[in-house]
Amino acid sequence: MSELVRGSSVPLFDRLAAGDGTSSNASWLLLPEQLQASIGKELSRLFNTRSRLPPSEFHQNSGTVIDYGVPDFSALYARRGDDVELLESALAQAVTLFEPRITNVSVKVQALMNRADAATVTVGGDVMIGLKAQRVSFELEMNPSTNTA
Predict the structure, then answer these.
(1) Using one digit for the tens of pLDDT, what is the confidence trace for 5-61?
(2) Which pLDDT score, from 0 to 100, does residue 75 have?
(3) Residue 56 has what pLDDT?
(4) Residue 121 and residue 105 in contact, taking contact as beta carbons nearer than 8 Å
């Protein structure tokens, strides 16, 4: 008799990176905690990869593999209102295009008090966990001068 297994499928790159050689379908399913960890890793990868497009052109991006990543933000300042809006908009666009497991994406960029060259990025959205959409939030530190998130 068939059994209903609850979980979310493991993305291809996560399966390839696992390298354990198993082909069991059970190893291709993520529990809710594993799904959140997988999305967090993907957001970190996304924010650590620089797109070839400048911030001014990134909004016309159609989501091709060639344009994966986020623009180079090193010239922007997380304490300047216009720059923060550009950062939030571009990061939300990148998450929407390249992390399809998150819907209703929201991004908030907040400058760190003790560091002028870094900001905290909070990404929120809905993720299907089992048969229900659940609101999730991820917090990353972004430092454009060293290209780390």
Answers:
(1) 455 655 655 655 666 555 454 456 677 888 888 899 999 999 989 998 887 788 887
(2) 78
(3) 76
(4) no
Q: Identify which of 58, 66, 70 has the alpha carbon closest to the alpha carbon of residue 140.
A: 70
Query: 67-113: per-residue pLDDT in tens?
Result: 899 988 877 777 777 888 888 999 999 999 999 999 999 999 988 87
DSSP per-residue string spanning 99-131: -TTEEEEEEEEEEETTEEEEEEEEEEEEEEETT
Helix or strand or coil: residue 145? coil
Query: How many other CB atoms are there within 10 angstroms of residue 80's CB atom?
Result: 12
In the chain, beta strands by DSSP E: 8-9, 29-30, 102-112, 115-129, 132-142
- Paired strand residues for 29: 9
pTM: 0.78
